[in-house]
Specification:
Blueprint lengths: L1 H35 L4 E10 L4 E8 L3 E6 L3 E10 L2 H6 L2 E6 L2 E6 L5 H5 L5 E9 L2 E8 L3 E6 L3 E6 L3 E6 L3 E6 L3 E5 L7 E6 L3 E5 L5 E8 L3 E3 L4 E7 L2 E6 L5 E7 L3 E5 L6
Parallel strand pairs: 2-6, 2-8, 3-7, 3-9, 8-10, 9-11, 10-12, 11-13, 12-14, 13-15, 14-20, 15-21, 16-20, 17-21
Antiparallel strand pairs: 1-4, 4-7, 5-6, 16-19, 18-19
């Protein structure tokens, strides 16, 4: 019986020693990965282009924050700061910039190599743009915060993992698949209206004082709140809201929102 007990104790001690050894190896691996995940290599892209009024600007597949400043200009200035833990990691991921008078396209390509992505050795980029106001804007698949100034055209934003802020939009406006809060100014709404769907965060719609629209929200896990005197909001049933802004008109629709929607007034004016 004694021998059996001694054998059991030895087996338990051996198992504990194995767990400790494996934990130590994992800790060393994490330390190694953490050490090499620092941005040791940097690369800058600086370019400028002339764009025609109403040009289309597309941004897609970017791994980092995007900031867009707008003004009364015809020149688009592009600045991209790329970072990675090594030159090899930087070379594995490509960022392309293409432009002509009617369009500007900035795309990040998918990085090759499962293990490099798994251990956090992927490259990233921070994008800063100075653009004309008179453009249409399409942004999709961005892993970082996204902000833009006044846009005198359509705005389509989808697949963003971060906070989204648009100073103001004058055309068709669409937000889809946003994992973060949204703040957007609405000066005018065109015939296609404003759509918000699949948003995991609070939404603030900053409305012009003379804006007229109907508001319809379904599948809401949150509330609709208005800070405006000319807005009436009714809750028809759980998760559904209907409202009239001013005298009503073109629609603002929301579906699948996990957060609150607040209606406020635009206080910022264009420079």
């Amino acid at each position: 019986m004694k021998r059996l007990l001694i054998l059991i104790v030895l087996v338990i001690l051996a198992a504990i020693a194995g767990v400790v050894a494996r934990s130590s190896s994992r800790a060393e691996l994490r330390e190694l990965v953490s050490h090499h995940s620092a941005a040791d290599v940097r690369e800058e892209i600086r370019q400028s282009y002339e764009l025609s009024p109403g040009a289309r600007v597309e941004l897609a597949g970017l791994n980092g924050a995007v900031k867009i400043e707008t003004s009364d200009t015809k020149t688009a200035e592009v600045y991209i700061e790329r970072t990675a833990s090594s030159q090899e990691a930087l070379d594995r991921r490509k960022v392309t910039v293409e432009a002509d008078a009617n369009s500007l396209r900035i795309r990040g390509e998918k990085e090759a190599g499962f293990f490099s992505r798994f251990f956090g050795n992927s490259a990233g980029e921070r994008v800063t743009l100075k653009l004309p106001r008179q453009i249409s804007l399409l942004a999709k698949g961005i892993n970082g915060a996204f902000s833009a100034g006044d846009i005198d055209g359509a705005v389509e934003v989808s697949g963003i993992n971060g906070r989204v802020q648009i100073a103001s939009s004058n055309g068709r406006t669409s937000f889809k698949g946003i994992n973060g809060s949204i703040v957007v100014g609405l000066k005018k709404i065109d015939l296609e209206g404003v759509t918000l769907s699949g948003v995991n965060g609070n939404i603030e719609l900053q409305l012009a004082s003379d804006l007229n629209a109907d508001f319809d929200a379904k599948g809401m896990n949150g509330r609709v709140i208005s800070d405006l005197p000319n807005v009436s909001i009714d809750k028809s049933k759980r998760g559904s809201y209907w409202g009239r802004i001013g005298s009503g008109g073109i629609g603002i629709t929301a579906n699948g929102i996990n957060g609150n929607i607040r209606l406020t007034q635009i206080t910022r004016t264009s420079a």
